[in-house]
Amino acid sequence: MTKGKSLLLGFVVGGVVSATATLLSTPASGKELRIRAKEQGVEWKHMLENLKRDGMRLKNQIAETSKEGAALIKDLTQEMKTSVQDWRNSVEPHQKNIEKYLEQIESSLKDLEEKVKKDSSI
Question: Where is the signal peptide (predicted)?
Fold first, then answer.
């Protein structure tokens, strides 16, 4: 936030200095100079009001976006937890069957090895 204030202060100070230098270096009567200075002051006032309004809008949009993002992350996290739990529930019954099949395959491989050893020793 201090960077934004510093930037705004820099614009204001730079504008004042440049306007003052311009007004003092131009040949004009005192009345014309006062009129231009007043007009310039009004323009700067409007510009600062617009900057302030735009800054408030930006602040509100950022706050709203961060709230929406937090809600989306919360929803996504809940959906992921539900999906993982559903997957676990669907895999768990099959896990025992897979373990059985693996034991049967292992047993068959051992039998096959023994048979190959017997055949090769003959």
Answer: 1-21
